[in-house]
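Quick one, tokens below:
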């Protein structure tokens, strides 16, 4: 099996307050569709969103469509929002840092404990291999960051 990169990340400077950026990245219903892979995110249970909130994400790549299940594991208002994907053990996080002109937003996929064998096999057999898929994820992280920036700076 292919080696999994333990950390894939990128960041962007946004001319908006951390509170404004937080209002976007901490609501999975808003984030669904900002990612090139996550088409929609549904919340299981009641509002408000916080630590322990569970989601179902509908992902798409070309003709492939698949669901993943997430759980919010870090929720620090205006600073960090992170959720673990139950299906592959990956953690997806947004980290906000105030700057003189707004917010530095970092988006990352953490896999320090690796991914599930099923996930790695699917990447190798269906998604073109782990390294090309991770390159696609990094590109998607950049796209997501640019879309969050556009949305945050629009208002």
């Amino acid at each position: 099996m292919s080696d999994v990169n333990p950390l894939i990340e990128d960041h962007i400077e946004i001319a908006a307050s951390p509170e404004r950026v937080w209002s976007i990245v901490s609501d999975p219903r808003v984030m669904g569709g900002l990612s090139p892979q996550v088409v929609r995110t549904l919340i299981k249970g009641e509002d408000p969103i916080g630590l322990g909130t569970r989601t179902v994400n509908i992902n798409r790549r070309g003709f492939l469509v698949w669901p993943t299940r997430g759980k919010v594991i870090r929720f620090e208002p205006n600073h960090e929002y992170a959720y673990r994907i139950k299906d592959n053990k990956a953690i997806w996080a947004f980290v906000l840092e105030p700057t003189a002109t707004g917010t530095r937003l970092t988006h990352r996929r953490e896999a320090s404990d690796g991914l599930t064998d099923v996930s790695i096999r699917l990447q190798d057999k269906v998604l073109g291999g782990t390294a090309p898929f991770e390159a696609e994820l990094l590109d998607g992280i950049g796209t997501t960051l640019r879309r969050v920036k556009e949305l945050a700076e629009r208002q």
